[in-house]
Each structure stands twice: as C-alpha cells, then as structure tokens.
Design brief:
Blueprint lengths: L14 H4 L2 H14 L4 H18 L2 H29 L5 E3 L3 E2 H27 L2 H10 L4 H30 L7 H34 L16 H31 L1
Antiparallel strand pairs: 1-2
Helix pairs in contact: 2-5, 2-9, 3-4, 3-5, 4-5, 6-7, 7-8
C-alpha cells in the first residue's frame, strides 16, 4: 500500500463507519492524550486501534501500514536510542558507550506512541466521509467559511498526494534519480516542489472561481444524512474511558505500593 492511500475514506457499512463523527473525534483526542500517561494505557490503545482497523478496514491494510512505516520507525528508534542513552549515561549499557537499557526502553515507547497516533488518525479518516465531517461541523454551528475550508482540505489531501506521485514518476523517467544525492536533492526542489506549489495554486484558483460562481459558502445548506449520537456510541466511549481510567489508577496504585515496599 502506497503512503498516499493512507487517511483516505473507505466506504463500508461497519459499526465504526456508522459512529457519530463527534464521538470519533472525542475518541481520537482521548486516545492521543492518554498514551502519554503510562505504558499500560499505551499498549491498550495500540491493541484497541489495531482491532478497530482490522474490523473497520481489513487485516491487509493494517499489515501494509506497519510494513510501509517500518523503515521510518526503525530510524526513529535508533536515533532516539542513541540520544536517550546520551542523556542517561549512568544506566546499564547494552553497547558501551552508545546504548543504555533505559535509552532503548524510552526509544521503544516513543516509537509505540508514534505508531498509535498513526493508527488513531488512520481510523478517523478511513471511517469518516467528507460529507459526514461537513454535516457535523455545521451541526455544531461553525461558520460556513471555516467548514468549507476544512472540507476542501479533507477532500484534496489525497489529490495532492497523487499529484506529487505523478510529478515524481515523471522526473524519474527523465533520469533524475541516476544523479548523485546532492544534485538530486537540488533538482528535486526545482522539479518537484516548485511544480507542486504551482499546481496547488492553480487548482486553488479554479476552485475559488467555481465557488464564487455557485455562491458558496451558502448559509442555507440542508443537512440530509446527519449521523446522530446513538446509545451504542455512548456505551463504547464510556467503556473505553473507564478502561483508561482503571489502567491509570492501577498504575498509580502499583507505583505507590512499590514505594512503600522499598
């Protein structure tokens, strides 16, 4: 799976797709904030959103995300292992004087947090259509101009990714990747970044003209298919929050018990 296929809505009829957008935003915020509390909550959130992605999308999608992100996560892990080991020089070393056990442990937690945030955001985008997001934002009385800007951004991120891929493929056919790294880096600025900026500005101009002709943003938009908050949405949210609170309390109680024992 290519990176540009991440965060793209997949039309399916699952529980997660039918969930209210506001509840999903609440789950995303709670999950991203709670993973900084302790390792138990981090592992619970990782397992939870692994399950959600498998049931809401597919096992192959989850495996593809892990495989494509693996090189990036490995680089982050190695860099953080070294930097944390430099900060904690008085710990037990794995590889003296470069790596400590505690440095590797902290680097592993950092990588897990990054992976969980990717899974959480992917869950939101693949189960939330632009129409559902727009209806929710209008329902909470956001200004129509802001709703329009957010919806357009939501819609055109995949388009911009595809544009970048096409430009890179065209430059590859011209032999840009046969050059040395420094020359390739310099040429990429001119042959990929600049065409992308010009293409985005051109597209933005055409969209602005089309919106002006159609009289958008209109305050008279009718919401036809708003997904309200259901009892099942509330129950699953309460269940997840209770588990997170329980894990936080258990971790706090365990730490206090260890302090008393020692």
């Amino acid at each position: 799976m290519a990176i540009n296929s991440y965060f793209i809505y997949e039309e399916k009829d699952t529980f997660w797709h039918r969930m209210n957008v506001g509840i999903k935003i609440l789950l995303v915020l709670i999950s991203i904030i709670s993973i900084w509390f302790n390792l138990k909550i981090l592992l619970f959130t990782l397992i939870l959103f692994t399950f959600i992605l498998i049931t809401g999308a597919s096992l192959s999608r989850f495996i593809s995300i892990i495989k494509s992100m693996l090189p990036f996560l490995v680089i982050i892990f190695l860099l953080n292992s070294y930097f944390y080991s430099v900060l904690y020089t008085d710990e037990i070393y794995i590889l003296y004087p470069y790596l400590t056990y505690y440095g590797v442990y902290l680097a592993g937690i950092t990588v897990l947090r990054l992976l969980v945030m990717i899974l959480v955001l992917d869950f939101f985008f693949i189960t939330t259509s632009p129409e559902d997001l727009e209806d929710f934002l209008l329902k909470i009385r956001l200004p129509h101009s802001i709703v329009l800007a957010i919806t357009l951004m939501f819609n055109f991120i995949p388009t911009i990714y595809e544009e970048i891929s096409r430009i890179k493929d065209a430059q590859m056919m011209r032999g840009i990747y046969n050059l040395s790294f420094l020359k390739r880096l310099k040429l990429q600025v001119y042959s990929i970044v600049l065409p992308m900026i010009l293409s985005a500005l051109n597209r933005a101009g055409r969209i602005a003209e089309a919106l002006e002709l159609s009289g958008a943003p209109s305050a008279e938009r009718v919401i036809l298919t708003y997904k309200g908050i259901k009892l099942s949405d509330v129950l699953i949210t309460i269940f997840i929050i209770l588990i997170i609170i329980s894990l936080a309390f258990f971790n706090y109680a365990t730490d206090n018990m260890l302090i008393l024992l020692y």
